[in-house]
Amino acid sequence: MALNSVKSSVVPQADLESFQACINSSTRILALLGAGLSASSGLPTFRGAGGLWRTHDATSLATPEAFSANPGLVWQFYSYRRHMALQAKPNPAHYALAELARRKDGFMTLSQNVDGLSPRANHPEDKLKLLHGSLFDVKCSDFFCNYAEKNNYTDPIVPALAIPTEDGSDPTTNENIAKRELDISDHNVPIPELDHSHLPKCPQCKQGLLRPGVVWFGEALPKKVLRDIDDWIEFSEKIDLIMVIGTSAKVYPAAAYVDEARAKGARVAVINMDRSHAPASGMRQGDWFFQGDAAQILPEILKSVIGEVKVDGDAAEGSAA
Ligand SMILES: *[C@@H]1O[C@H](CO)[C@@H](O)[C@H](O)[C@H]1NC(C)=O
Ligand SMILES: [Zn+2]
After folding, report:
1. Which residues pair with 212 in a beta bridge?
2. So where does Zn(2+) get bound (predicted)?
3. CATH assignment of 1-43+89-132+218-321, given 3.30.470.10, 3.30.420.40, 3.40.50.1220, 3.40.640.10?
4. Largest Cα–Cα distance in the chain?
5. Residue 159 CA: which ligand is closest?
6. Which of 79, 154, 199, 210 to mutate to test the pocket of ligand 1 (most atoms within 8 A of CB)?
7. Quick one: pLDDT at residue 5?
8. Residues with Cβ within 8 Å of residue 247, at least 6 apart in sequence
9. What distance in angstroms lies between residue 153's CA and the mean position of ligand 1's atoms?
């Protein structure tokens, strides 16, 4: 483990002082995480208009209907995303939040990210609620089967999902694995047609296909996760602080959590690259807006609680902004 200090020039001093006074005395803190947190780990998010994977609109692949119609295509999209997420590394912001979770009992983290980077930064599991599931969870797609599995990092999850090579050579050699990282828009490499026999099967019912354990468009958020969050919020009359990190928090349920925290007295700290990403309820007197890269800002503004952020020598390499 190497100690990595982070440049401090990004944070306005006055803001920093009042924020640190607040976080030092806070006993109930929420953090809401979005794609911006992982941006400096270099992950493509496929969100928003024009998010393309090959020639496919990424949002059209993230539905239960798409999976029923063509599970081979949807699995290839998710296998690619699993692979990219495994190539990425947690950045100093992931480590800073994980350390805050260890230091502050009353800290709860709600993440909209499916990339597995917070778990890989050893964020305590009981203080990390994944609103949209994870690329590394898999579950049975059969309605009547409840099989689910967490933290499956096998890549590719089945051999047929190794990304194919142009010349038909073995896609699982190191050299070919390196090539498949290069270009997501490489239309020269055809997407093979995969049927049920190639795809991961449920080991429990032995009938259903396994599917990625992420929340698709049109699906409900995981009940247990929502219940855990409600329990945490209801546990006390007050919340001191909510940090809104790399997410615009304009849509359900993120926007609602900001409002609930405010209703319990919380001040709001926004950490975002983009000034226009204030919460739906707007900014109020006593809130903070730290504009910039979360990977630089979080280790700095949390320093009074967590000390210098410890980043794995390895993990630090992927964190350049
Ligand atoms: C992940 O899932 C695949 C497909 O079901 C399975 O073969 C593999 O053993 C799993 N990996 C781990 C680490 O459990
Ligand atoms: Zn099953």
Report:
1. 138
2. 140, 145, 202, 205
3. 3.40.50.1220
4. 63
5. 1
6. 154
7. 41
8. 32, 33, 34, 35, 36, 112, 254, 272, 277
9. 8
Q: Which sequence spans correspond to the domains of the chain?
A: 1-43+89-132+218-321, 44-87+143-214
pTM, whole model, 2 decimals? 0.87
Is 22 known to sit in a ligand binding site?
Answer: no
Q: For domain 44-87+143-214, is the CATH number 3.30.1600.10? A: yes
Query: Please, which residues bridge with residue 210 across strands?
Result: 140
Task: State the catalytic residue, choosing from 132, 187, 196, 277.
Answer: 132
- Residues in the chain, pLDDT under 50: 1-9, 49, 182-185, 313-321
pLDDT number for residue 166:
67
Q: Which residue's CA is the closest to the ligand 1 atom numbered 3?
A: 157
pLDDT of residue 221: 96
Tokens 């390499």 correspond to 317
